[in-house]
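Narrative of activities, Objective 1.

The group set out to show that a structural description can be obtained from nothing but a protein's sequence at a throughput compatible with the screening campaign. Below is one input-output pair from the validation batch, recorded exactly as produced.
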Amino acid sequence: MLTDNAHACTHPLAFVRAQRGWSYQRLARVVARRARDLGVANMAAERQKVWRWEHRGVVPDRVSQLALAAELGVPNDRLESHPWPAWLPTGDAVRTEYPWTPVGSVTSLMDVVEDALSDRRGFLTISGVGVAELATQWLGLDPARLAAALAGGEVDDQIVNRIEHNIPGLRVMDERLGGESVRRLVDAELGVVADLLVRGSYTEQIGRHLHLVAAELARFAGWVSFDAGFHTAAQRYWITALHAAHTGGDRMLGANVLKNMSLQCVDFARPREAVDLAEAAVASIGTGSGRVAAMLQMRRARALAATGEASACAEALARSEEAMDEAGPEDPAWSDYFDLGEYQAQIGSCYIDLGHLAQADRWLERSLAVLPTSRARDRATYLLRRAALQIDLGNVDHGCELTREAMPMLEATRSKRNARRADELRRRLRRHSSDPDARDLDQVLSRTA
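Output recorded for this entry:
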């Protein structure tokens, strides 16, 4: 499922290689040559070594880092202040310093619709310090004041409602086809809203409504970019969504943005930042109940599970359960996906991170029993997770059976996150290469685009 091409730009080093046109072997030779300049004469130019830096989380030795920094023109002191791989140059940083004003919100919107869709970097750009500052700023904001724009044609409720009416259909397409298939559509809708905000004439009430539609579209654009593997683009959209949610006066929607950012940090093994973002999301709505409160507490539980904090995770799970009992029709439409199946699957995911595999398997089994078949990508996600669990528990035949059940959904939904999960599953299957079914399934997965 996940080839070297699919790995493009999933690490800052991949971005550097793409910029310079370096293969792994070419980069290895560059590092070896620069090391000789530094007085290290016998460094081998090994392609495999460089590949492991990019794909296996191996940190290069000090000489290799100094050699690469010299080639890239990076000062040596940056290696100390920004440990690997943060010191690697990755192009323009994600801008986070927009003013928390209507003008700042519109500026952020215009920037993101111009740049984010073409941003194909598959790694996180905002630093841990930047994440903490963002969460702190959001929590300390007073309600925004919005002045009516007087620029061009009149924007009325009918126009805004028409755009808003399109969003549920985009969500359905994402669930059934994956983020890559709908990413351009969402960005186009966001561009229309940005243009109306800049050029339109509207009342303060309509202006707030436009900002709220922009906030949800930008949040969703970030989500589908995240699913498609464009992680810097996702961060750009989410920064814009936070500003638009603030200007529109919707703390709950902003909390959902922070929740999405927290999950991204979990995926990238940055659990401490994930906890900070999840706790800021929970604090945004206070002591609420219902579906939104349940999903925010669940995201906090996932982040805490990633840090190994079992008791804190259990407390968050208990709060999520209490809030979920109060879910009702008054919850916002964007929270509808967090149904019983998703709730149970997320509990299972917490137990996976905590190492309680048998418990995790039971929760995933319950989830798959009730998760709608129309949610093809989500079913593929949790089938793959359960297949991996079954293999880890020694039930290779059942793991293969679950994988085969997931395969049509993998092919139908273009999701880089699921492609990565399939690749992880292949590594498990290779450990059982003496099993004909496991061996055949590994080969089938390798041919699945």
